[in-house]
Amino acid sequence: MIRAIVIDDEWYNLEEISDLIEKTSFFYISGKYQNPILALEEVPLTEPQVAFIDIEIPEIDGITLAEKLLEINSSMIIVFITSYNQYAVQAFDLNAIDYILKPIKKERFYRMVEKIKNEIAFRAQFKLKTLKIKTFNHLNVTIGDLPVRWERAKAEELFAYLLMHHGSYIHKERIIENLWPDHEPEKALQILQTAVCKIRNLFSQIKNMVKLDYSGSRYCLVIESGECDYLEARSALSNYKTNDKNTFDAVENVSKLYGKGFLIEEGYIWSMEKDQEMREGFITALNEIINYYIEEGNSHKTKSALKQITRLQPFDENPNYMLIKMYIECGDNNAAFNHYHWLERVLKEEYDTVPSERIKAILNFDK
User: Fold this and answer.
1) pTM of the predicted model as reported, rounded to 2 decimal places
2) Any residues with CB less than 8 A from the CB of 250 and at least 6 apart, and which?
């Protein structure tokens, strides 16, 4: 059932509307209020999916109340039930699903209920077809809340390879050479064709989002819509401009997600060059961003960017030294020691080494 709240300062209207709602057997009333402030405060408890709101109510008008409810949950469905028609434009500016005048006519009320049912069904269908692709660390593709079940490792690898070349047509012989060089040409071609069929079947329900084209013995993968960290990173790096602050946030935000690297846990030989290329791109951009923030005197932003570089390249002494030094200079010794201990662990586990004497010295460790 759909959770709903009802807000009307007149108790008889409140009860009438609540009674109509309950008789639909579609809604569960999780809260009904004559006090709009209380309704707002109790949203975390009632968790409404739909709010039925009178407009002319004391303390806070219904339009303002709806704005505040949408600030808490932008997907909440709003229905205005009022005695006044002059607020209709404002109501629909808020994307209210309906605007019903009192006295309520049952036929009109049930038309509104059908609107809500259709809207919720549409949203559920849309949610099931939301595409998310994650490539940092390992490949993870979901449609709605469900992970894609590749079944064939070759199909998964082909998808990842074509995604790396997003928007470009790649000759099938080049694909075979990079992905399956140890197979006989005829067998490799069969594997390629089977993998292509598997990919097309997996994404057949969202053809408008994922397109796998074939032309002139070449394949091209295009993600028309959805979320993809690799494409976000590629866009952030290509749009980045030195000394243009408007391009900084995209680079910094994506670099935070990069983790150990592009498809690094999949073990694909062919993705290693791309991983290194992207890593170097982030480090170059972040170094320039750091210099910009230092000149600007923005220590908070400088520390944030330094932290990202140390995650991307923990063995580089300079950014680690600069970050720890900045923590100490601003009196945040806990952050300085926490970073040192993180660095010590990572260097030991991944590089079988220890932090430099220079870094130890700034923290007054014994050499």
Assistant:
1) 0.64
2) 232, 235, 236, 239, 240
pLDDT 10s digits, 241-289 = 998 999 999 999 999 889 889 999 999 999 999 999 999 999 999 999 9
Taking Cα atoms as reference points, which of 81, 80, 210, 228 lies closest to residue 155?
Answer: 210
CATH class of the domain whose range is 131-225: mainly alpha
Q: Are 88 and 45 in contact (CB under 8 A)?
A: no
Fold exhibited by the domain 229-362: 1.25.40
128, HSE (Cβ side, Cα atoms, 13 Å): 6
SS3 category, 284: helix
Mapping DSSP to helix (H, G, I), strand (E, B) and coil, where does residue 46 land? helix
Q: Which residues of 206-235 are buried (b: 16+ CB within 10 A; e: fewer)?
A: beebbebeeeeeebbbebeebebbbbebbe
Which one-letter DSSP state was computed for residue 108? H
pLDDT digits (tens, 9 = 90+) for 135-178: 999 999 998 878 999 988 999 999 999 999 999 999 999 999 99
pLDDT computed for residue 367 by the predictor: 43
Q: Which residues pair with 98 in a beta bridge?
A: 79
- Report whether pLDDT(366) > 70: no
Q: Which residues contact 192 (CB under 8 A, 6 or more apart)?
A: 158, 172, 175, 176, 179, 180
Task: Please give the span between the terminal C-alpha atoms of the chain, in angstroms, as a whole number.
Answer: 67
State the virtual CA torsion across 220, 188, 138, 198 in degrees, nearest 10: 60
2-128 under CATH 1.10.10.10, yes or no: no
